[in-house]
Design goal:
Length: 203
Protein backbone atom coordinates (compact mmCIF):
# COMPACT_ATOMS: atom_id res chain seq x y z
CA UNK A 1 0.00 0.00 0.00
CA UNK A 2 1.07 3.57 -0.58
CA UNK A 3 -0.69 5.28 2.32
CA UNK A 4 1.44 7.46 4.60
CA UNK A 5 2.41 5.82 7.88
CA UNK A 6 0.13 8.09 9.95
CA UNK A 7 -2.88 7.25 7.80
CA UNK A 8 -2.29 3.53 8.21
CA UNK A 9 -2.02 3.88 11.98
CA UNK A 10 -5.31 5.78 12.24
CA UNK A 11 -8.09 3.80 13.91
CA UNK A 12 -11.29 3.87 11.87
CA UNK A 13 -14.80 2.47 12.15
CA UNK A 14 -15.75 -0.93 10.76
CA UNK A 15 -18.45 -3.60 10.99
CA UNK A 16 -17.80 -7.29 10.43
CA UNK A 17 -18.90 -8.78 7.13
CA UNK A 18 -20.77 -11.49 9.07
CA UNK A 19 -22.98 -8.90 10.78
CA UNK A 20 -23.70 -7.20 7.47
CA UNK A 21 -24.48 -10.48 5.73
CA UNK A 22 -26.81 -11.42 8.59
CA UNK A 23 -29.09 -8.54 7.60
CA UNK A 24 -28.63 -9.10 3.84
CA UNK A 25 -26.82 -5.80 3.57
CA UNK A 26 -24.18 -6.59 0.95
CA UNK A 27 -25.85 -6.73 -2.46
CA UNK A 28 -23.72 -5.44 -5.32
CA UNK A 29 -24.17 -1.75 -6.12
CA UNK A 30 -26.41 0.81 -4.45
CA UNK A 31 -29.05 -0.35 -1.98
CA UNK A 32 -31.61 1.83 -0.18
CA UNK A 33 -31.33 0.07 3.17
CA UNK A 34 -33.89 2.12 5.08
CA UNK A 35 -31.24 3.02 7.64
CA UNK A 36 -30.54 -0.48 8.98
CA UNK A 37 -26.85 -0.47 7.98
CA UNK A 38 -26.47 3.11 9.19
CA UNK A 39 -27.88 2.05 12.56
CA UNK A 40 -25.65 -1.06 12.66
CA UNK A 41 -22.49 1.03 12.30
CA UNK A 42 -23.66 3.36 15.07
CA UNK A 43 -24.67 0.58 17.47
CA UNK A 44 -22.13 -2.18 16.78
CA UNK A 45 -19.27 -0.57 14.88
CA UNK A 46 -15.75 -1.14 16.18
CA UNK A 47 -12.48 0.71 15.59
CA UNK A 48 -9.18 -0.71 14.36
CA UNK A 49 -6.03 0.55 12.67
CA UNK A 50 -6.35 0.99 8.93
CA UNK A 51 -3.20 -1.10 8.42
CA UNK A 52 -5.12 -4.06 9.86
CA UNK A 53 -8.27 -3.39 7.83
CA UNK A 54 -7.04 -2.43 4.36
CA UNK A 55 -6.41 -6.05 3.34
CA UNK A 56 -9.07 -7.71 5.48
CA UNK A 57 -12.38 -8.22 3.61
CA UNK A 58 -13.89 -9.88 6.70
CA UNK A 59 -14.34 -6.36 8.06
CA UNK A 60 -15.95 -3.48 6.16
CA UNK A 61 -14.77 0.07 6.83
CA UNK A 62 -17.65 2.56 6.78
CA UNK A 63 -17.12 5.45 4.36
CA UNK A 64 -19.56 8.40 4.26
CA UNK A 65 -20.00 9.25 0.56
CA UNK A 66 -21.73 12.58 -0.08
CA UNK A 67 -23.06 13.62 -3.49
CA UNK A 68 -23.12 17.43 -3.54
CA UNK A 69 -25.86 18.96 -5.69
CA UNK A 70 -26.52 22.64 -6.45
CA UNK A 71 -28.40 24.87 -8.84
CA UNK A 72 -25.46 24.38 -11.24
CA UNK A 73 -25.48 20.59 -11.22
CA UNK A 74 -23.56 17.79 -9.50
CA UNK A 75 -20.11 18.41 -8.03
CA UNK A 76 -17.61 16.30 -9.97
CA UNK A 77 -14.20 15.69 -8.40
CA UNK A 78 -10.93 14.70 -10.06
CA UNK A 79 -8.49 12.98 -7.71
CA UNK A 80 -4.86 14.10 -8.05
CA UNK A 81 -1.80 11.88 -7.51
CA UNK A 82 -1.18 13.62 -4.16
CA UNK A 83 -4.29 12.03 -2.64
CA UNK A 84 -3.68 9.23 -0.13
CA UNK A 85 -5.50 6.39 -1.90
CA UNK A 86 -3.28 5.63 -4.91
CA UNK A 87 -5.78 3.13 -6.30
CA UNK A 88 -8.18 6.00 -7.08
CA UNK A 89 -5.75 8.45 -8.67
CA UNK A 90 -6.96 9.99 -11.92
CA UNK A 91 -10.55 8.89 -11.39
CA UNK A 92 -13.63 11.11 -11.55
CA UNK A 93 -15.72 10.99 -8.39
CA UNK A 94 -19.03 12.46 -7.26
CA UNK A 95 -18.52 11.40 -3.65
CA UNK A 96 -17.09 13.58 -0.88
CA UNK A 97 -16.05 11.53 2.12
CA UNK A 98 -13.58 9.29 3.85
CA UNK A 99 -12.86 7.14 6.88
CA UNK A 100 -14.41 7.85 10.29
CA UNK A 101 -11.69 8.08 12.99
CA UNK A 102 -11.99 6.94 16.59
CA UNK A 103 -11.96 10.46 18.05
CA UNK A 104 -15.65 10.51 17.08
CA UNK A 105 -16.36 7.27 18.95
CA UNK A 106 -18.35 8.97 21.72
CA UNK A 107 -20.63 10.87 19.35
CA UNK A 108 -24.30 9.88 19.55
CA UNK A 109 -24.33 9.50 15.75
CA UNK A 110 -20.83 8.51 14.64
CA UNK A 111 -21.81 8.25 10.98
CA UNK A 112 -23.39 11.70 10.75
CA UNK A 113 -20.54 13.31 12.69
CA UNK A 114 -17.99 11.64 10.42
CA UNK A 115 -19.89 12.69 7.31
CA UNK A 116 -20.02 16.35 8.39
CA UNK A 117 -16.32 16.37 9.25
CA UNK A 118 -15.37 14.96 5.86
CA UNK A 119 -17.63 17.43 4.08
CA UNK A 120 -15.96 20.36 5.82
CA UNK A 121 -12.44 18.95 5.42
CA UNK A 122 -12.72 18.48 1.67
CA UNK A 123 -14.89 21.51 0.88
CA UNK A 124 -15.27 25.12 1.92
CA UNK A 125 -18.92 25.27 2.98
CA UNK A 126 -20.31 28.66 3.95
CA UNK A 127 -22.85 28.63 6.76
CA UNK A 128 -25.30 25.82 7.36
CA UNK A 129 -27.85 26.48 4.60
CA UNK A 130 -27.67 23.01 3.11
CA UNK A 131 -29.87 19.92 3.23
CA UNK A 132 -28.41 16.51 4.04
CA UNK A 133 -30.30 13.30 3.28
CA UNK A 134 -29.19 9.72 3.85
CA UNK A 135 -29.85 7.55 0.78
CA UNK A 136 -28.44 4.06 1.44
CA UNK A 137 -25.31 1.98 0.98
CA UNK A 138 -22.81 1.25 -1.78
CA UNK A 139 -21.07 -2.10 -2.02
CA UNK A 140 -18.64 -3.51 -4.58
CA UNK A 141 -16.75 -6.66 -3.68
CA UNK A 142 -15.29 -7.08 -7.17
CA UNK A 143 -12.08 -5.12 -6.51
CA UNK A 144 -9.58 -4.72 -3.62
CA UNK A 145 -10.78 -1.22 -2.65
CA UNK A 146 -14.46 -2.12 -2.56
CA UNK A 147 -13.91 -5.43 -0.79
CA UNK A 148 -12.81 -3.69 2.41
CA UNK A 149 -15.06 -0.61 2.30
CA UNK A 150 -18.79 0.09 2.45
CA UNK A 151 -20.20 3.42 1.32
CA UNK A 152 -22.89 5.20 3.34
CA UNK A 153 -24.44 7.48 0.73
CA UNK A 154 -25.80 10.97 1.40
CA UNK A 155 -26.89 13.86 -0.77
CA UNK A 156 -26.14 17.46 0.13
CA UNK A 157 -28.23 20.11 -1.60
CA UNK A 158 -26.56 23.51 -1.41
CA UNK A 159 -26.32 26.77 -3.34
CA UNK A 160 -23.29 26.69 -5.63
CA UNK A 161 -22.03 30.02 -4.26
CA UNK A 162 -21.71 28.47 -0.80
CA UNK A 163 -19.26 25.69 -1.67
CA UNK A 164 -15.76 25.30 -3.14
CA UNK A 165 -12.91 22.77 -3.03
CA UNK A 166 -10.76 23.06 0.10
CA UNK A 167 -8.18 20.32 -0.48
CA UNK A 168 -7.06 21.76 -3.82
CA UNK A 169 -3.72 19.96 -3.54
CA UNK A 170 -5.60 16.65 -3.60
CA UNK A 171 -8.47 17.27 -6.00
CA UNK A 172 -10.08 19.55 -8.55
CA UNK A 173 -13.81 20.07 -8.81
CA UNK A 174 -16.42 21.49 -11.16
CA UNK A 175 -20.18 21.44 -11.54
CA UNK A 176 -21.38 18.97 -14.13
CA UNK A 177 -24.62 17.60 -15.49
CA UNK A 178 -25.88 14.04 -15.22
CA UNK A 179 -25.56 13.75 -19.00
CA UNK A 180 -21.88 14.75 -18.87
CA UNK A 181 -21.22 12.20 -16.15
CA UNK A 182 -22.86 9.45 -18.17
CA UNK A 183 -20.65 10.35 -21.13
CA UNK A 184 -17.56 9.95 -18.92
CA UNK A 185 -18.68 6.83 -17.06
CA UNK A 186 -15.55 4.89 -18.08
CA UNK A 187 -13.40 7.48 -16.26
CA UNK A 188 -15.40 7.35 -13.02
CA UNK A 189 -14.41 5.50 -9.89
CA UNK A 190 -16.52 2.39 -9.37
CA UNK A 191 -18.74 3.74 -6.59
CA UNK A 192 -19.60 6.88 -8.54
CA UNK A 193 -20.45 4.89 -11.66
CA UNK A 194 -22.72 2.61 -9.62
CA UNK A 195 -24.69 5.65 -8.45
CA UNK A 196 -25.37 7.00 -11.94
CA UNK A 197 -28.70 5.16 -12.42
CA UNK A 198 -30.00 6.64 -9.15
CA UNK A 199 -28.95 10.27 -9.46
CA UNK A 200 -31.87 11.51 -11.52
CA UNK A 201 -34.30 11.00 -8.65
CA UNK A 202 -31.98 12.80 -6.20
CA UNK A 203 -31.11 16.00 -8.08
Amino acid sequence: MSQPKDALNERVVFVSRKKLEAIDALPHGFYADGGKVYDLFNSEGGFAARRDLEDDPSRKQGIPYVVVVSNLGILGLFRKSTQTEARLHGKISIGVGGHIPDDLELEDDVIYAGMLRELHEELHVNGDAFEIQYRGILNDDTNPVGAVHLGLVFTCHIDASDVSIQETEKMEGHWTSLEELKQNEERMETWSALLLPHLESWI
